[in-house]
TrEMBL record:
<dbReference type="GO" id="GO:0006508">
    <property type="term" value="P:proteolysis"/>
</dbReference>
<dbReference type="InterPro" id="IPR036013">
    <property type="entry name" value="Band_7/SPFH_dom_sf"/>
</dbReference>
<dbReference type="GO" id="GO:0098552">
    <property type="term" value="C:side of membrane"/>
</dbReference>
<protein>
    <submittedName>
        <fullName>Regulator of protease activity HflC, stomatin/prohibitin superfamily</fullName>
    </submittedName>
</protein>
<keyword id="KW-0472">Membrane</keyword>
<dbReference type="Pfam" id="PF01145">
    <property type="entry name" value="Band_7"/>
</dbReference>
<dbReference type="InterPro" id="IPR001107">
    <property type="entry name" value="Band_7"/>
</dbReference>
<dbReference type="GO" id="GO:0005886">
    <property type="term" value="C:plasma membrane"/>
</dbReference>
<keyword id="KW-1133">Transmembrane helix</keyword>
<keyword id="KW-0812">Transmembrane</keyword>
<keyword id="KW-0645">Protease</keyword>
<dbReference type="InterPro" id="IPR001972">
    <property type="entry name" value="Stomatin_HflK_fam"/>
</dbReference>
<dbReference type="InterPro" id="IPR018080">
    <property type="entry name" value="Band_7/stomatin-like_CS"/>
</dbReference>
<feature type="domain" description="Band 7">
    <location>
        <begin position="19"/>
        <end position="177"/>
    </location>
</feature>
<comment type="similarity">
    <text>Belongs to the band 7/mec-2 family.</text>
</comment>
<feature type="compositionally biased region" description="Polar residues">
    <location>
        <begin position="357"/>
        <end position="369"/>
    </location>
</feature>
<dbReference type="GO" id="GO:0008233">
    <property type="term" value="F:peptidase activity"/>
</dbReference>
Length: 380
């Protein structure tokens, strides 16, 4: 029985030491009360307390906490019920106030968030509620931060995770959005077709202009070539006639030679299947008389003198091919100059077209046309 008393004393001492030694974890703060009254705070690490007098009443977590709240039904300004799901990021900055100023600060923050959301959403219609999340978050954070400051809590962020309108409103919104997209698609299609028609008309006009200019230049060159050919042909015929005429006069033909030539041409006059009637010209009698007289003079040996061959002089030789070649060179030079002029005019028109296209304002395909704006007509 003698060892029982020392054993009890040892057990009692271990229990007192265990109660007196407190270890506070990192990012936590302990609230110590002495006989029910706040005494001090304990930082992270081991601490010794007075047994049976001091007691760690609260252990506050100093890390940032994330508290999601269940969806809340809120009525908008246009009397529509929407369900809002929110989440709050807060942090304890004063553990003593958080422990003694609010009985349950998380529940208090939740109730304050619900009432604040009702006040904010009640002043907005459904469209503003769906498109003003940043504004709602800022207002809610300002109100919560001001209200929780006296509790030793700082609200860092407030986020609205979802805003759910009624099912009927969602269907109507989807139909409206679909109709708006269809309208924009139709507008873009019409704009594209109009632009395509304008560009096609402009291209056809430019092509017609260039085609007409090409035809004009071609007609001019063809006319010049025909004129040059006619001139060369006329000059050749004139030179041939002159040569024949000079040769005839150089040979000094008499009446008998002319009559003989006239008789040789008579079969050519009567040649042809369609000739039914022979027309004998009045000059035939004179030719026959001259031919008979020449024959009689030849037979009688009197009055006929043969032409003197020494008196014949050949006509001056004319180089017809050289003249034709010279005319051809001149015609090619004029044609080349006309072609160069046509090419320069086409280049000037192409440059003017590029300047007009660069200065013409482009329509934005993604922007619907403004109502009442005058429609751009294609350039005539």
């Amino acid at each position: 029985m003698e060892w029982i008393v020392p054993l009890v004393i040892v057990i009692f001492a271990v229990a007192l030491l265990t109660q007196a030694l407190k270890v506070i974890r990192q990012q936590q703060v302990g609230i110590v009360e002495r006989l029910g009254k706040f005494r001090r705070t304990l930082d992270p690490g081991p601490h010794l307390l007075v047994p049976l007098i001091d007691n760690v009443r609260y252990t506050m977590d100093m890390r940032e906490a994330v508290v999601p709240f269940p969806p809340q039904g809120v009525i908008t300004e246009d009397n529509l019920m929407v369900s809002i799901d929110s989440v709050i990021y807060f942090q304890v900055v004063d553990p003593v106030r958080a422990a003694y100023e609010a009985q349950n600060y998380i529940q208090a923050i939740e109730q304050l968030t619900m009432t604040t959301l009702r006040n904010i959403i009640g002043g907005l219609d459904l469209e503003q509620t769906l498109t003003s999340r940043e504004e709602i978050n800022a207002k809610l954070r300002s109100v919560l931060d001001e209200a929780t400051g006296k509790w030793g809590i700082k609200v860092n962020r407030v986020e609205l995770r979802s805003i759910e309108p009624p099912a009927t409103i969602r269907d109507a919104m989807e139909k409206g959005a679909r109709a708006e997209r269809d309208k924009r698609a139709a507008i873009l299609l019409a704009e594209g077709q109009r632009q395509s028609q304008i560009l096609s008309a402009s291209g056809d006009r430019e092509a017609s202009i260039l085609r007409a200019q090409g035809e004009r230049e071609s007609a001019v060159l063809r006319a010049q070539a025909d004129r040059q050919a006619q001139m060369l042909r006329s000059e050749g015929e004139a030179q041939a006639i002159t040569t024949v005429f000079n040769a005839i006069h150089a040979g000094k033909p008499d009446q008998s030679l002319l009559a003989y030539q006239y008789l040789q041409m008579l079969p050519n006059l009567a040649r042809g299947d369609a000739n039914k009637v022979w027309i004998v010209p009045s000059e035939l009698n004179d030719a026959l008389k001259g031919l008979g007289k020449a024959a009689g003079d030849l037979l009688s040996g009197a009055g006929y003198e043969a032409p003197n061959k020494d008196e014949f002089s050949a006509p001056q030789k004319i180089d017809v091919f050289a003249e034709i070649e010279q005319q051809k060179i001149e015609a090619e030079g004029e044609a080349g100059r006309a072609v160069q002029q046509a090419i320069a005019e086409a280049q000037q028109m192409e440059a003017g077209k590029q300047r007009r296209l660069s200065t013409t304002p482009q329509l934005d395909a993604t922007t619907p046309p403004v109502q009442g704006a005058p429609e751009v007509q294609p350039e005539q």
